[in-house]
Amino acid sequence: MTNIRDIAKKAGVSVSTVSRVLNHHPYVKEEKRRLVEQVIHELNYEQNINAVHLSKGKTNMIAVVLPFINHPYFSLLLEGVASKALEKQYQLVICQTNYDVKKEEEALHMLKTKQVDGVIICSRASSWSTIEYYQQHGPIAVCENVQNRSIRSVYVDHYAAFKQALMYLKEKGYTDIGYCIGRMTGTNSLQRQQAYKEYVERINQPYHPEWVFQGCLNVTDGEKVVEKLVQMKNRPQALLVTNDQVAIGIKAQCEQAGISVPGELAIIGFDNHPLSSYLQITTIELPLKEMGETLFTLVGSKVPQKIELPFRFIERKSV
């Protein structure tokens, strides 16, 4: 196998000159650089990238952990991360987990074994103790509000966003309100649930567990929500919906089922997907691309930081 000594011998230069050319060192005469590059091409030489990483003490690679790649929420986060990675000449290792803890730990193990320089977790299933264990091996940034922990994080206040939407519905005359959620666990989901339960208690209304629809991720899930609604004798007047994809599915299925929006059912979505504007769905905009950019910046910072980004309530015609 060809090594840099072979290249140096054939090019008639020192090993250190070959090394400088391979590492794009500026202080090499142009004539020697061209000669070395020609010999590298003739000998079909490829650097041992693992050896390069070992010598530099970094890989210029970041692992991005996310449950689903094809979901608009995570796609926009990833777009933000990728734009910054391209700018800083980093490569991304995409780790799709479907919320499988073992898959997340595989990505975190890459940090421990120095295969990546850092890990970005867009939505986690692992415990904080697991995250904190692996953090001793390198930086980890998460996309949620982390309290009392020295972990890098960027987040939107989901409690405040949900509370504002609930109060908006109340002011519009809606009291019987349900909500759709992707999963009941997770910091962001728990904040939404807290805001909802506090609202129910505040207006002295009984909590209706059947008005909480779990496992809502895409358009099809929204259609299933309406299928359940039409079977209810006592159904909510309004729904806060985990994302605009689900809200779109709900609105479309309502038309099929003869349920008027907002007359019989008001809808508020999340994310401000472009289709939500076209369909006039009231929504809460989350700065997802900016969050992704910030995640990348945080994972490269030496000191853990917590950064809150603002949400924006967008009033349209679905309420």
Automatic annotation (TrEMBL):
Q: Does the keyword Transcription apply?
A: yes
Q: Which InterPro entries match?
A: HTH_LacI, LacI/GalR-like_sensor, Lambda_DNA-bd_dom_sf, Peripla_BP_I
Q: Where is the HTH lacI-type domain?
A: 2-56
The record, for Pfam families, names: LacI, Peripla_BP_3
Record's PROSITE patterns? Answer: HTH_LACI_1, HTH_LACI_2
Molecular function (GO) terms for this protein are: DNA-binding transcription factor activity; transcription cis-regulatory region binding
Keyword hit for Zinc: no
UniProt entry keywords in alphabetical sequence: DNA-binding, Transcription, Transcription regulation
Official protein name in the record: DNA-binding LacI/PurR family transcriptional regulator
Task: State the organism of origin.
Answer: Priestia aryabhattai
Taxonomic classification, please? Bacteria, Bacillati, Bacillota, Bacilli, Bacillales
